[in-house]
Amino acid sequence: MLERFFKLSENHTTVRTEVIAGITTFVAMAYIIFLNPSVLSLTGMPSQGVFLATILTAVTGTLITGLFANLPYALAPSIGMQAMFTYTIVFGLGYTWQQALGMVFLVGLVDVIITLTKVRSLIVKSIPAQLKHAIAAGIGLFIAYIGLKNAGFINYLVNAENIISLNNTPFNGGGAKTIETLTSNGGTTPEIATFTDPSVILALIGLIILVLLVVSNVPGAFLISVFVTTLIGIPMGVTNTDIGGLSSFTSTFHDFGSIFGQALGSDGLWSMFTSPKNILVVILTVFSMGLSGLFDAIGTFIGTGITSGIFSKEDQREFYENKGFKSKMDRGLVADTFATMFAGIFGTSNTTTFIEASAGIKAGGRTGLTSVVIAIGFLLSIIAAPLVNVIPSAATAPILVVVGITMMNEFKAIDWEDVEVAIPAFFTSAFMALSYSISYGIAAGFIFYVLIKSVKRKFSEISVILWIVSLLFVLNFVVMAID
């Protein structure tokens, strides 16, 4: 039965190989079930509810990938998108977490539509390759910066006059900045920490442990570092040792009930379209999230699927030149987009195809059976619910730093000798990290690219989609200035 359904012989693999590959990938990415709650809970969402939402989203998305696309990939909430969810949409734009979940659902819905039509390939082709690399590298820089801040390695000097003036400055989504959101969103002047706080010292220890594990190519390095750092934090007084027992499971399902379906509630999706300005902000934010997710998934597919033979040249040609979902890459993206829709409903940030799947592919995984095994692993991890509030942020922050570092290789694909490329690429990546906004980074890159190419009279290099999106970004900034 398994042989016939997953076409194991045709893909030159066996049940044993697929099971080992699935376990390998699960161990490599299981850290997300602890990292995601620690980041999203900063918005006010219950961490244990997010924990269960993360697992259910991963199980659903990964099963769709395995059973529908017959691919050995795993889906779970994206690290880049969890950062955008928390620091850009909630802290930066001032939306509630319910509204942010509404945006996640909307991204999934829009992505499903464009993935099943010619629009998808038009968008992929319309964005210059150099800007795609800059977006990926910028997200990495953004993630690493957040990791350094969450670890406590960077402090902020906040001028009292700045606090007073910023407290009266409205966000795009409404509301006013407070001292808490100001300091959590970057403050005014960064400075290096003094490393006297036990939590900061623990984060430093965790970072060293993780780096040593990663450079030594230890399987499951991220997950191992989380648990080892958490244990070290016990005698340091940083780790919360109150596990909670059975009550933790009860509260987990109760908290999940408080976030499930909020994306489609009166406080979620439908509460954002109250004015033309808010509609514009939502459109641009959804576009930025969808664009980042699309490039992320395609990058993972191309980076791991071509050399392994999972995606043939014919399959790639079918993806770029035809509509529908006949190719494996098409079906993989369909799974990714539906998973994001479910993520919004369950109560977590956008999903992505995890690059950690490469570990399972290296172990021989070639079919959807690998994904089914991964999904089972996530489902069984519900028993770890009591540990959610035990693991300190000092144990998860180093993951953000290292993941961000691994994305820096995108910078080498940018032609820095060509100023027409270097300027948009720089503003794309720099604005993402320094403005705490993936959307603003994409906006800066697009606008400068269009401006430079127009001055050089190279209009043929500017696609219609690039013109439209850049003008919308400019309009958004004008509305912000007038408001």
TrEMBL record:
<feature type="transmembrane region" description="Helical">
    <location>
        <begin position="367"/>
        <end position="388"/>
    </location>
</feature>
<comment type="similarity">
    <text>Belongs to the nucleobase:cation symporter-2 (NCS2) (TC 2.A.40) family. Azg-like subfamily.</text>
</comment>
<feature type="transmembrane region" description="Helical">
    <location>
        <begin position="426"/>
        <end position="452"/>
    </location>
</feature>
<dbReference type="Pfam" id="PF00860">
    <property type="entry name" value="Xan_ur_permease"/>
</dbReference>
<feature type="transmembrane region" description="Helical">
    <location>
        <begin position="50"/>
        <end position="75"/>
    </location>
</feature>
<protein>
    <submittedName>
        <fullName>Xanthine/uracil/thiamine/ascorbate permease family protein</fullName>
    </submittedName>
</protein>
<dbReference type="InterPro" id="IPR006043">
    <property type="entry name" value="NCS2"/>
</dbReference>
<keyword id="KW-0472">Membrane</keyword>
<dbReference type="GO" id="GO:0005345">
    <property type="term" value="F:purine nucleobase transmembrane transporter activity"/>
</dbReference>
<feature type="transmembrane region" description="Helical">
    <location>
        <begin position="20"/>
        <end position="43"/>
    </location>
</feature>
<feature type="transmembrane region" description="Helical">
    <location>
        <begin position="333"/>
        <end position="355"/>
    </location>
</feature>
<keyword id="KW-0812">Transmembrane</keyword>
<feature type="transmembrane region" description="Helical">
    <location>
        <begin position="95"/>
        <end position="117"/>
    </location>
</feature>
<dbReference type="GO" id="GO:0005886">
    <property type="term" value="C:plasma membrane"/>
</dbReference>
<keyword id="KW-1133">Transmembrane helix</keyword>
<dbReference type="InterPro" id="IPR045018">
    <property type="entry name" value="Azg-like"/>
</dbReference>
<keyword id="KW-0813">Transport</keyword>
<feature type="transmembrane region" description="Helical">
    <location>
        <begin position="279"/>
        <end position="312"/>
    </location>
</feature>
<feature type="transmembrane region" description="Helical">
    <location>
        <begin position="129"/>
        <end position="148"/>
    </location>
</feature>
<feature type="transmembrane region" description="Helical">
    <location>
        <begin position="221"/>
        <end position="238"/>
    </location>
</feature>
<dbReference type="GO" id="GO:0012505">
    <property type="term" value="C:endomembrane system"/>
</dbReference>
<feature type="transmembrane region" description="Helical">
    <location>
        <begin position="464"/>
        <end position="482"/>
    </location>
</feature>
<feature type="transmembrane region" description="Helical">
    <location>
        <begin position="192"/>
        <end position="214"/>
    </location>
</feature>
<feature type="transmembrane region" description="Helical">
    <location>
        <begin position="395"/>
        <end position="414"/>
    </location>
</feature>
